[in-house]
Amino acid sequence: MSSPLPHPSAERIVTCPACQGPSLYGPTNAWRPFCSQRCKLTDLGAWASERFGLPETMESTADMPPLHT
Ligand SMILES: [Zn+2]
């Protein structure tokens, strides 16, 4: 039998829990179910802040440039 399957449909697109964008959920995405490392770290950071009440969030917010729309 010389007809290997082209793609074992193990990959699919899910919604990234951090940015609500499309995320590849499969062996090639190390950050699944997140779309990227950044989103994973962001989510873990938010979780940690919520759990432990770290003041780090306020500090990073103050460090950000003001929004001008
Ligand atoms: Zn994301």
Fold and architecture overview:
With 69 residues, the protein is of the alpha+beta class. It has a domain at 12-50: 2-Layer Sandwich (Erythroid Transcription Factor GATA-1, Chain A). The protein has two helices and two strands. A two-stranded antiparallel ribbon has the order 1-2. A hairpin with a 6-residue loop joins strand 1 and strand 2. The structure holds zinc ion. Zinc ion (ZN) binds at residues 16, 18-19, 21, 23, 34-36, 39.
* CATH-defined architecture of the domain at 12-50: 2-Layer Sandwich
Q: For the report, how would you describe the main beta sheet?
A: 2 strands, antiparallel
Uncertain regions: pLDDT < 50 for 5+ in a row? none
CATH class of the domain at 12-50: Alpha Beta
Shape: elongated
> What structural category do the secondary elements indicate?
alpha+beta
* H/E element order: EEHH
How many DSSP H or I helices? 2
CATH level 3 topology of the domain at 12-50 = Erythroid Transcription Factor GATA-1, Chain A
Q: Quick one: CATH superfamily of the domain at 12-50?
A: Erythroid Transcription Factor GATA-1, subunit A
- The gyration radius over C-alpha positions equals 18 Å
Beta strands, count: 2
Keywords: Metal-binding, Zinc
Organism: Giesbergeria sinuosa
Pfam family, one: YacG
Function: Inhibits all the catalytic activities of DNA gyrase by preventing its interaction with DNA. Acts by binding directly to the C-terminal domain of GyrB, which probably disrupts DNA binding by the gyrase.
